[in-house]
Here is the input.
Amino acid sequence: MLDIKFIRENKDIIKEAARKKHLSFDVDQLLVVDKERLVLLSTVEQLRSEQNRLSDAVSTATDQTVRATFIDQVRVLKETLKAKEEELRDKMKEWQTLMLSVPNIPDMSVPEGESDVDNVEVKKWGDIQEFTFPAKDHVELMTQLKMVDFERGTKVHGFRGYFLTGKGVQLSFAIWNYALSFWSQRGFTPVIPPILARKQIFMGTGYLPQGEDDLYKTQDGDYLAGTAEVPVMGLHADEVLDAATFPIKYLGFSPCYRREAGSHSKDVKGLIRVHEFYKWEQVVLCEADHTTSVALHEEINRNTEEFIESLGIPYHTVVNCGGDLGQGQVKKYDIELWVPKEERYREISSASYFHDFQTRRGNIRYKDKDGTLRFAHSLNCTAIPTPRILVSLVENYQEADGSVRIPEVLRPYMGGETHIKN
RNA sequence: GGAGGAGUGGCAGAGUGGUCGAUUGCACUUGUCUUGAAAACAAGAGUCCCUUCACGGGGACCGUGAGUUCGAAUCUCACCUCCUCCGCCA
Here is the structure.
């Protein structure tokens, strides 16, 4: 959500934002509705003012006939008021619906483009190794090492179902624990949020009303979040925060549920795209300052890069083009890890900042030094998702004998073992 | 799942149809007094929206949403949250 005053004064910027993001949004329509809304609002308020005045007159009238006259007058007035109020209510709904689909303004540095193929590489790290033996893909490797069981996963859950088993489980826990320690040292407070959350909380982050198709909904009207970002952002909803605590840095851990509607033909095998996975997520709140947001955006993205570097997996970072940005994002980096058997990089992390787009929706404010209430800025970035990370990890660390070498940093969390083998 | 009770400003806590946006206490800000502080006294202070260059004016907000009424914090209905008791349960 953006400030309506800003939209009124900068409709060309909004138009340009929609164009760059390849979203269809009609600002002119919004501005027409906004004008109609204001006319109705002022009419209703004038009528109410008159009603208040007459009601006061009723209560102070001592003469019964005078009193009755006033009551008759308000009765007549009320009918007009009621009709206008209904009109206003409908107009407000129309206005709110439009307001919820206004795109946030992408940063100048965001490249032009339609989809992820137009994303621009900004960094490349690590040496891609040539295998001296026939390399296996993660499905084959992990199945043989009994780290995963896809067949039974499908039996139990269906399409995209999987069991993690044995060393697959241990490796997951190792990554989770290592990540917890890694980010704790960087000032993040760990949090395990409810992943089953209310509609309102999803509205706050912008996953609703758009994006409903990709969410699982319960019979009680709640939704399962696709990321801890949703409930962790909800944590401070409707609060006025103390600016002295900024930046607030949370590391949220949760299972994540995604219907993957519209991706049925993509990544049908393996652990790349599953309906249910786990993720550590960085969520940050800071003061409403562009420079601060930008600095923190670089910082949280860098955190994940350094984490991946410590695991020793080759990656590159791309800056997402306009068409690959969500409605609320100002700028986004994706970190993609090298998947040897696919001979390409696959997304592992996504770092975005939003300015006050989310905090307006979620009503997260703070008191500025000059005493005025402002909407905070919000950012988030994947810390590490499992089991997707295992794809690159096992493929890059496989040995000729079919075993998988364990990255040094994870060994303390794996009982000191150096290899996963049968 | 069943029965009962409650949700008021930063906190505590009055108010059960008519100048109530709301008594009061604590906390807060400013002033007087004081060398300074404390105490005492006085004054001030909520949020959102519309309008105005500005001073100002108007509207809304007592968990949320609807309703009754000339008028609702107060009455009615639905929902949400919390508390107590019973039942069930990792």
The two ends of chain A are 53 Å apart (CA to CA). Residues 4-99 of chain A form a domain with the Helix Hairpins fold (CATH 1.10.287.40). Chain A has twelve helices and 18 strands. The CA atoms of residues 193 and 231 of chain A lie 6 Å apart.
